[in-house]
Design a protein that fits this description.
This protein is an alpha/beta fold and 300 residues long. It has a single domain, classed as ATP synthase, F1 complex, gamma subunit (Pyruvate Kinase, Chain: A, domain 1, 3-Layer(aba) Sandwich). The chain contains 6 helices and 5 strands; from the N terminus they run αβαβαβαββαα. A 5-stranded mixed β-sheet has the order 3-2-1-4-5, sandwiched between helices. Helix 1 runs antiparallel to helix 6. It is elongated, with a radius of gyration of 29 Å. The two termini are 32 Å apart.
Length: 300
């Protein structure tokens, strides 16, 4: 019985230590979510302004720009997967990797080759473990993304797109990332970045939005597109980085909350087992004392 009590005490102590760690990580993730959401909100006005400008140029001009014109034959596609550098986030990384591989499989079924561009150590490790080749990798900047990372990713993707599928580049680009919906919900989302599909707003806001004015372009629409489209691509990638960061912190908080609750349950269960073992030991000791007393009494 004494050995059982020691085992239960050790398990209770271990569960309490685990609960302290997971509770601290839950609080840290909760504080980071607010900062990440603030960054998403702060970047939205600029992204909307760039989207509106690109929409105006694409709508009010007949320029066939390489970034807005779909190629006749799409031989190779780029799939950019936004994962995280750290784990302990539940199904955050596994669901985005699964979504990215499903998108790639769909593209292959259409007769296209696929190049992977990976963001986050978890995605890089997943591909390295399975000996899958990646055309580009970026790590170390997923918790609090910087715009310089978006510039690097956009530069590599635009270079590959300009090169074209015939010459070892790509003919279209897809982004796969976790979109932050709420503290409890983060959904994988895949969008085609290039050839450009400009989405001005959702259906509700589009119905109430004002009519945009006509624009005059100086010096000419093609030059304006050359300047605007790289900025637009950078802003879309940066927004995906921020969305993924906020979703990751929310997933971490949810996972750590679940871990803390499980630790509480373990502590309760082991405490009950410890109390039962202690009671059984006390009962046994009382029975031994009574038995000894009866033996002494009968011996007299």
């Amino acid at each position: 019985m004494g050995a059982q009590l020691r085992v239960y005490k050790q398990k209770i102590s271990s569960a309490q230590t685990t609960k302290k760690i997971t509770k601290a990580m839950e609080l840290i993730a909760a504080s980071r979510i607010q900062k990440a959401m603030g960054r998403v909100r702060a970047s939205s006005p600029f992204a909307r302004a760039v989207t509106r400008a690109v929409s105006a140029v694409a709508t009010h001009s007949d320029v066939e720009h390489p970034l807005t014109t779909e190629r006749e034959t799409i031989r190779r596609s780029a799939v950019v997967i936004f994962a995280s550098d750290r784990g302990l986030a539940g199904a955050f990384n596994s669901q985005i990797l699964r979504e990215g591989l499903e998108v790639a499989e769909l593209l292959r079924s259409q007769g296209k080759e696929v190049d992977y561009y990976l963001i986050g150590r978890k995605a890089v490790g997943y591909f390295q473990f399975r000996r899958m080749r990646a055309a580009g990798e970026w790590t170390g900047d997923t918790d609090t993304p910087h715009f310089s990372t978006a510039e690097q990713v956009a530069g590599a993707l635009l270079d590959a797109y300009a090169q074209g599928g015939e010459d070892g580049g790509v003919d279209e680009i897809h982004l796969v990332y976790n979109r932050f919906v709420s503290m409890m919900t983060q959904t994988p989302e895949s969008v085609r970045l290039l050839p450009l599909e400009v989405v001005e707003a959702d259906a509700d806001s589009a119905a109430t939005s004002p009519v945009y004015p006509l624009y005059e372009f100086e010096p000419d629409p093609e030059t304006v597109l050359d300047a605007l489209l790289p900025v637009y691509v950078q802003s879309r990638i940066f927004n995906a980085l921020l969305q993924s960061s906020a979703a990751k912190h929310a997933a971490t908080q949810k996972a750590m909350k679940s871990a803390s609750d499980n630790a509480d349950k373990l502590i309760t269960d082991y405490t009950r087992l410890r109390n039962n073992a202690r009671q059984a030991e006390i009962t046994q000791q009382i029975a031994e004392i009574v038995g000894g007393a009866d033996a002494l009494a009968s011996g007299k």
